[in-house]
Here is the input.
Amino acid sequence: MTTATNTKSAVPDESAAPSRARSAPFTLDWWMPIAILFPALLLRVINIGSVRNVIDDARLHVLTSYAYSRTGFLGPDTWWSPPLKHLLSAANIAVFGNSEITWRMKGAFFGALSVYLAFLVARRAFRHWLPAVATAALLMLDPFSIAMSHTTHEDLPTVCFILLGVIFFLRWVDFRSDWQCLASGLFFGAAIGLRWYAIIPAGVIALCATWMQRKRLIRAAETLLIFVSAMLSVYLAAYLPWIARGYSLAEWISLQYDALRIQGAGFELSAHLMSLAGADRWFVSWVGGNETLVDNPGRMSSLVNDPWIWILFVPSAILLCYVAVKKDRAEWFAIGATTLATYAFLISSPRPIIIYSAMAVVPLGCVCLGFAIAYLFKRRGWVVLAAAVAWSLLLYPAVSGVYAPAVLLNWLMGLVRS
Here is the structure.
């Protein structure tokens, strides 16, 4: 019998180790990244130069990336948002060139990468093929994720850093290494440097890590200090071009306060963006932007969610938390609680939240749903997954600009307009 002291996932610190043995995650072979990343990227780059949707702000983002990376000036885009997105855009232009297609390639790359990272999260958390493959398939074909991959918005890079932070947290659970904790904190810091809502998953992970070491308070405090220090370091580093203009640390703190204040309840949005706001309805009803016809009437591209799949995220996260408590798996609870806490924050926010922030929930929601499919249906879960994949493929023409028969096209337009 394999014991907890000789498996790859064993915890060296016996005082912190669980009382049961954990199996090691299945082995990652060389072909797996290719089998996931290539189709995920292909689905996102098809017609990337022609597809459009209602939240496209590529030119504004590029102008600000130039201004911020060269002068530290926070504009003409919103000055109250964390500025790491401008540095990422500038790096993307420096590497891949300055054209509309290369601007969007950043989104396509991070969109495909999020699929593989979500697969890695499910692999290390659940250590079985079905939840890992289900997670990758659901996110790979999610129409909203594909639509967001055609934009220059920072939500996809944000979720990639969140997923990396979760992966290293899961590795810390297995090995209890300070280096794993440091890496997790660095990636969560990068996520917060892109979107402030990343504080929610970072906080849940920090609380779960502290709980897992509740019998060793000094060690728990050390872990928390490493994690928080790494986050703050990366977040502050994102402001270095702004600080280089001559601002002090006190002025940086004042900037944070002003940025938080301006994003309060009085924040106003244009009418067309308000139609995409309201997190309470994203998972239960169709929310889409106006379709854009490209090339000929047989093609369309839009921004649309998938409530038939998304409505299962919250129940799946609740199930995962329940099973985690029942089986004493704090790392599972962290994943489910992160999904629920992030969505609860988006619902309860005093200001309108536009649907592109749903990307904060969708990848880990797919992880939770992948677990639920495997847990509830066992081997029959492959049949359930096949049905979900078929449904997602049916929605693909709505966001990709590929040809669709008139009957399908009219039906898809009806969904987007509803």
